[in-house]
Structures are given as C-alpha cells and as structure tokens.
Amino acid sequence: MREVKPVNRILAAVGRTAYRGGLTGVLWALLLLPVVGRGQEAAAEPRFDVTRYTIDAELFPSTHVLTAKARLDFTPSADLTSLRFELHSALRVEEVLDVTGKPLRFRQEGLTLQVDFLNPAIQGKPSSITVRYGGPLASADGSPVDNLKLAYVGPEGSYLLYPGRWFPVSGYRVNRFAATMRITVPSGETVIASGKPLAQVREVNKVTYGFQFDEQSFPGTVVAGKYAVQPATAVGANITLYMKPGHVEFAPSYGDTAAKILGVFSDKFGGLPDAHLSIVEIEDSTVGGYAAPGLVALASRAFTNPVNYRLLAHEIAHLWWGCLVSPATLNDVFLDTGLGTYAAAMYVQSAAGEAAFEGVMNEVAVGALTHEDAAPISQAGRLAEYTPEYQSIVIQKGAMVFHMLRWVTGEDAFLDTLRTRKGLAMVDRIVKTEAEWKKQLTPAQFEVTRLRGTERAFSGQSWNLRERGIYRCVCCGNALFGSDTKFDSGTGWPSFWAPIAKENIRTETNLGWGMPRTEILCAECDAHLGHVFDDGPPPTYLRYCLNSAALRFEKKEG
Q1: Which residue from 232, 258, 243, 235 is spatially nearest to 310, judged by alpha carbons?
Q2: Which residues belong to the active site?
Q3: Together in a domain, 348 and 203
Q4: Which structural domain, as residue segments, surrounds residue 489?
Q5: Does the residue 276 lie in any domain?
C-alpha cells in the first residue's frame, strides 16, 4: 500500500469537503466570511466596544506587585445595566467610578469582573468607567491559562502580556482598541510597549514611561527591566533589540534576521503602518514568544546560535496577522493564528528552499491530525488557548487551510487576497449624501474629491512635502500612498510610483481635457484623487498624479 504523507491527507480531506460546494469558492468563503456558529467560550458576546484604555500603572519588582488605574472609554451597542470584563484573578479591584466620578457596584468571581450601573448606559452614547486595582503577579496563580505565567512582575524583569488580562479586558482578541499607557518602574529600568513614546517623568528612585497608540489594535503588552539597548546593524533596518545581560552577543544576528523577515513579509503582504520594531527578551517561564503592534517579545530560550529564524518569523508574522487583521469572533481565530504559522513556513521556503518548506508543512500536518475530534476548526471558541487541542485545531489545521488556498488559487491570487484583508487594504464601502460630504469637507476638498476638480499646480500642501508617513483619503481615511513611493515629478502635484495596496484605489478612463485619461478614485468612498500616467520612474514607470486637497498626511514618528 502506498504511504500517504500527512500533508497530502490533510489536503485530500479539505479538497473532498470543498469540492462538494465548489473548491475555490468554499475555501475562500471559509477565509473571508464570518463564522455563524459560536462555541461555548464564545457565546457571551459583549454588547459594547471599548474604544480606548488609559492606564496608569506602577510596578514594584521587589514585592512582585502591580497597582493600576484604568479608564475604559466604551460605546454600548444596546442599553446596558452592567458590563463584564476579564481580569487576572490575582488582581483585586478596589473601586469602580462612573464617568462623573461616582462609585459603582462591582463584583469579582474568578476571571470575571462585573460592573453594575444605577442608570443604564445608553445605546450609542460614549461613556467611561475608571477601575482601580492591584495585587501580586509572582506566579501562575490566577492566570487565565492554568500553569502558565502571562503577567509577571519581578526583579529579573517584568512582562505584562495582553493574554494575561492584567487590565480589564472586554472581547478578548476581538475588541480592537487604542491605548494610552503610563508605566512607572524603579530607576534604572526600561519600559517597552506599543505606540509613540511620551516624555519620561523622573521622580526620586523611579521613572514613568508613557506610550500613546491611536490606532485600533491590541496594544496591551508591556515589558520592563534592565536591558542593554542594541540598534540593529542591518542597512535600512529600523529595529531596536533589548537584551538581558549575557545575551547581548545575539543582538546583531537576530537584528539582521528580523530585517530580512520584515523585508520578505512586506513584499508579500504590504508594509506595516509603523516601520519600527522592538525585539525584547523576557524570562523563560512563559510563552516562547508574543507579538504586539511594533513589538516582539522572545523568551531567553529563543535566542540561539544559529538564529531560530522560524520562531522569529512566526512572531513577526503576527504583526500582520493578529495586529493588523484580527478575527470577528473567537471561532474565527484560525484566520490569524493559522496564517501566522503559515507565513512563518513561507519564510522558511524563501530562506531555505522547497525541501525545508515541505518538511515544515509535513510537521504541521502531523500536528493537525492529532486532535481531530476536539472540535471543528470553525468552532475554535470551544478550545482553551495554549492547549495541545488548540495548537492542533486552530494553529496547525488553520495553517493547512491556507496551504490549501495557496495551492488551489495560485501564488498571485493568494497574496492579492491576503493584502485585501490587511489593515492597509480597506475594501468596505462608504456612501454619503452630497450634504453630508459638504458638512465634512472644506470647499476645496469637496470641489476636488466629490466634483472631480483639479487644484492649481504648486498650490497644494503635499506636492513638496518630504516627511515620512502615509497619505490617506481626506474623505474616509483609507491608506492610499506612502512616502516611500513619492517622487519629485516637477509637475507641482504630489506624485507617486505605486499605491500602498492596489485594492485601495480603483481607476476609470474618461475623456477629460479632450483626450482619454485614467482617473484615480478611492476604492472605499469613490473620492476623486487625480490621474495616473505612464511617464513615471522605475520600477512601475507610472506616475500617480494626485491633488493635495484629496489627501490627509499622517506623519510617521521616529
């Protein structure tokens, strides 16, 4: 009897299922459509969205204690008399205040924190609560995952990972949020987190680091300790490594490899909104690695010679799949966890060749078959995170789904579809009335974007702008062009040789000015942006000639 390799067994099983409804269509439906069925853990969907956390926390490493105050800005999707959150069981709430500063009733049971209102929170009306809490984070006691430390404060270094629920979390892995965090530590320690650094505040024997992250993602991870700070040495790299004593020699090789991985993934998936990456070493008694926006934490055991590039690629992949793209429900988590694993395999393919890639995928396939009866992949919400069943069904079988998609659709179609799901490739449509656009826009912006006007050459704000950043649609915020493709065309209008993602714009041919011209429109809101010509520089030889009035520039810090 011929031996069937595990990878072929998986592909055959997926293929048999898919063919019953049309192979390509069903597979892409699995990728792109929300899953209807909810698992047991995913059943209680929050009826509110937390839009921003403002957290002031102080770490006391010598006693393993965290104290914190968190303001949660939220918007109810229904009239509510109570809110529920998850909070690390070792952290005890002292008080909860409403938006006016009045005390609210609350109760804690296990990971659950429930806050009750005297007067209902009104549907659609933004509000806030403030929670004061604290406690010891010295062991895995109280962790959301049994026997696994995900939040720890100690003299050898502290880490507060988002899965550790070290602040009141709603809609874990689903509710995207912005955050402002101010973290106070003893003098001599460094704090690393997502977002734009704020000015440090120094007091006697302590220092406060601040971070502001204004995008909607998962910026809820903080690392602190005594580090040797090492900038990456690779040409063009914007990477900083924070290494513990005794591991500084790993910084050059890991920085160089991270730069290569970022380059490969940027080519395949498009660039990240923030080009800077912090790689931070954390202690061994936790997960091997974890990624948050602009930050990758690696346990000490992950630093080896030669570089463990597969693990590094896996964590860096989650800067795209998990930070920029996240599941609609916990039943959909295979869409980012599985894709993060498959992206790491794709990097192995790029770095080490087809044989190495096949070896990785057969290993993944073996794992995907070990717990087939635990749950269907579309009911991932039933499985506890960081368990063997979760690893098999959600991560490894999820990776196999994407392997099948790539095989069926082809490389170009596969990558094009992934780019449309990434945060910079926005495909949802926005439709407003003329009166609504007039109310939102200035007269010049309305004339250009809604009436297809053209501003005078050399008159706009962006034609000679040389700062680094992203040019977004002034109407809807869609990311259109990056400063890395901007060039001086001599025309007096801002010019680019490529968009951030081709899915973010669309083109139409018209007969303006007595000749056929190709008009550029925002794919999200149909705003007129300008025209594209074939007299640009390499590598595209195109010139996307835009109106400054159609653009909003977002400066890239650092």
Answers
A1: 258
A2: 545
A3: no
A4: 434-555
A5: no
